[in-house]
Amino acid sequence: MNDYLLFMLFEFVLQEANGNVFKELPRHLTTVKNFIRISVFVGLFIRLFIMSIMSYTGGTILAMAGNDCVCIASDLRLGEQMTTVATNMKKVHKLGEKVYIGLGGFHSDAKTVLDKITFRKNLYELRENRKIKPEVAAVMVSNLLYQHRFGGYFTEPLIAGLDPTTNKPYICAMDTIGCISAPNDFVAVGTGTEYLLGVCEGFWKEGMSSDELFEATAQSMLSAMERDAASGWGVIVYTITKDKVNVKTIKARMD
């Protein structure tokens, strides 16, 4: 709406100036008026109809922390703007025994980051002779993204897991150049983030058990799937506890 009002303001100014100013100017300066009008049209078209590369393939990922447990969930849709390409796309991947990574954004860049970070994780565990912690995995991903900041990867990683020794939950998300945000409650990336955060505020509470955490995560994701056209075709939820990892698939909007 702001773009439309800006365009109308430009149009009004140009029409007013047409009779008073432009008729007194040489012919080549009259072209400036048309150039401004076309520029505003093009800018408005880009803002309204051309999607960001970060939302080109769509998708939403959410992580929540509970009492010695974490949940990480994603939708199953892979798209090309508003065209659905696949309905069983895996966006959450296992990095360690209790460490998972979700990759939102442009799918091909997400796959590249996953391959590179898997290689670095394997090298770390061989060199250090110990299992990787979620905090270490987050720093590793952040370093990778920051190294490529001038020709970056169009992906927003999300890390969720438990410390292999203390079982302390850890969740974090980062932007395309690796700036880490590690809250204590929940974090989301992807096209449905704006629909998730308010719902998560209502569902999340401190000290939730694994069952309560799964329910809160699932209901939050289902709510976002109803509102985000670039996500959908079901939700897969990973519940990570100190004893095991439960994986459940939930039916959601199928369009």
CATH first level of the largest domain: which class? Alpha Beta
Strand order of the largest sheet: 10-1-2-11-12
* Contiguous uncertain segments of 5+ residues: 1-6
Overall pLDDT, averaged? 81
**Oligomeric status:** single chain
Based on Cα principal axes, name the global outline.
globular
- Content of β-strand: 25-35%
The CATH architecture of the largest domain can be given as 4-Layer Sandwich
Total individual domains: 2
| Largest sheet data | 5 strands, antiparallel
**H and E string:** HHEEEEEEHHEEEEHHEE
What share of residues is helical?
A: 40-55%
CATH homologous superfamily assignment of the largest domain: Aminohydrolase, N-terminal nucleophile (Ntn) domain
Report how far the terminal alpha carbons are from each other.
28 Å
Q: What fold name goes in the CATH topology slot of the largest domain?
A: Glutamine Phosphoribosylpyrophosphate, subunit 1, domain 1
**What is the structural class?**
alpha+beta
Q: Number of helical segments?
A: 6
